[in-house]
Design goal:
Strand 4 and strand 5 form a beta hairpin. Helix 1 runs antiparallel to helix 10. The strands form three sheets. Strands 1, 4, 5, 8, 14, 15, 16 and 18 form an eight-stranded antiparallel β-sheet that branches. The chain has an eight-stranded antiparallel β-sheet with strand order 2-7-17-9-10-11-13-12. Strands 3-6 form a two-stranded parallel ribbon. It has ten helices and 18 strands. It is of the alpha+beta class. The structure holds 2-acetamido-2-deoxy-beta-D-glucopyranose (6 copies). One 2-acetamido-2-deoxy-beta-D-glucopyranose (NAG) binds next to loops.
């Protein structure tokens, strides 16, 4: 005789299956030959599968522990005085906010005289920091809430090696004054070139990355978004700047806060699934591993100097750049506010070892199924007795 399934049993069975079914993705992929992130291992055999694993996070109270403070004169001739760690904290040029943002500022409270600025006897205090870690390849996700801008301001988030330009330089966020579009650039020793058209959506400028010619212009690409830098960038809450560096290319993406891909939010970034990067230096024109190595992450905010100084009079900013620097109230927006930098490391699976690997990856899911089924039987037994 077939008894009707008692309601009390369904109370157990339904949630159990609801729990188990989503975990069966691996099994489904095994049967269909399709891959998901954890089903990555289930791709066609003999194909290398890339995943990015978390290797370090710069964030919150410990953010500044992992950087050195540069307190030498600005090599780009800016009208700033970079301060050491103690001074930076004491003067509150750097601090971590209660909600965990790492902030870096230009001094916006000290008056300077024009004489002090032009003679460079006293310049405006600012911050430049270098990561203690040096990198070769990686995926770097900068979550930035606010980036510096304003007349005379020249901020950068970039990477460079100890030996310049032979170790290479990668400028990820950089521009001057109140520009609206970010400019990505690379500076190298002779022989590295940007191939255009390439796999990027931005507008290419110079294609010669050689830093020893063209007054160190390097090669560069301007982001197509007019909210990738400056006031609109900050008004929209910033976003994520992603930089992927491997032997194939160095790519940069900018995502508005409202359009950050799901995989980034979930901590399992997969650049291969993102739209075209805004900028990309391909190994077709540049042997990436020969021209880029041992890179430190760097943040700085300089004023005037080689770029913001020479362009100052052409962008409608008032007076001269030197005059601008004397008045602290001009630099209230010269602030980096960083939520985090997440560094990921590329891991490649050789899927040809996976004959039988599919079963191995489905095993935990099959275990869950078995567990659920045993309980179904037990509870059915208890309920009908
Ligand atoms: C997999 O990667 C290795 C180097 O790590 C390379 O030699 C090989 O050709 C790659 N195989 C495929 C199918 O891309
Ligand atoms: C990334 O992975 C490689 C190879 O597994 C390892 O040698 C390297 O130390 C890792 N780098 C980081 C930053 O974790
Ligand atoms: C800085 O200059 C402004 C404008 O000239 C003046 O109002 C202010 O008192 C000065 N601040 C200090 C600390 O000297
Ligand atoms: C663009 O991507 C395609 C497909 O991966 C590749 O074949 C091509 O070489 C790339 N172009 C450049 C300039 O890197
Ligand atoms: C700072 O930014 C605000 C908001 O965009 C703007 O109204 C103000 O004029 C800026 N001040 C300076 C000195 O750049
Ligand atoms: C991947 O595995 C196959 C089979 O073991 C092997 O022939 C091949 O050389 C491997 N490739 C790499 C890049 O390790």
């Amino acid at each position: 005789m077939v008894r009707p399934v008692p309601l009390s049993l369904l109370v157990w069975v339904v949630p159990a299956w609801a729990f188990a079914l989503p975990k069966l993705g691996g099994l489904r992929d095994l049967m269909t030959g399709r891959g998901t992130d954890q089903g990555a291992v289930l791709e066609k055999r003999g194909v290398n599968k890339t995943i990015w694993t978390s290797s370090f996070v710069y964030q919150g109270d410990s953010f500044f522990d992992h950087w050195d403070f540069w307190n030498s004169p600005d090599p780009t001739n800016g009208l700033v005085q970079y301060v050491d760690r103690d001074t930076a904290f004491r003067e509150r040029l750097v601090y971590v906010t209660p909600d965990g943002r790492a902030n870096m500022h230009v001094d916006s409270w000290t008056n300077l005289t024009l004489d002090e600025v032009t003679s460079k006897s006293k310049l405006r205090p600012s911050v430049r920091i270098h990561s203690k870690a040096k990198y070769n390849h990686g995926l770097f996700l900068l979550d930035v809430a606010e980036a510096p801008f304003g007349c005379g301001t020249w901020p950068a988030y970039w990477m460079s090696g100890f030996y310049w330009p032979s170790d290479g330089e990668i400028d990820i966020i950089e521009n001057v004054h109140s520009s609206r579009s970010n400019q990505v650039a690379w500076h190298t020793s002779p022989g590295c070139n940007l191939v255009t058209p390439g796999n990027f959506s931005g507008v290419a400028g110079s294609t010669t990355c050689d830093a020893t010619i063209n007054y160190n212009t390097g090669c560069g690409i301007v982001d197509p978004s007019v909210a990738s830098f400056g006031p609109t960038f900050n008004e929209k809450g910033g976003g994520i700047y992603a930089m992927k560096w491997d032997e194939i290319s160095i790519d940069v993406w900018f995502f508005y806060r409202s359009a950050i891909p799901e995989d980034i939010l979930e901590g399992t970034p997969n650049p291969a699934s993102w739209r075209l990067p805004s900028a990309s230096l391909s190994n077709l024109g540049c042997d990436i591993d020969r021209y880029f190595m041992n890179q430190m992450l760097i943040f700085d905010i300089t004023l005037c100097g080689d770029w913001a100084g020479t362009s100052y009079s052409q962008v409608g900013c008032p007076g001269t750049c030197e005059e601008r620097v004397t008045d602290p109230s001009n630099f209230v927006n010269a602030t980096w506010s960083i939520n985090s930098i997440k560094v990921y490391n590329k891991t490649i699976f050789n899927t040809s070892y996976l004959d039988g690997g599919g079963m191995r990856s489905a095993f935990p899911h099959l275990t869950v199924m078995l567990f659920v089924n045993i309980w179904v039987v037990i509870f059915y037994g208890i309920t009908v007795m």
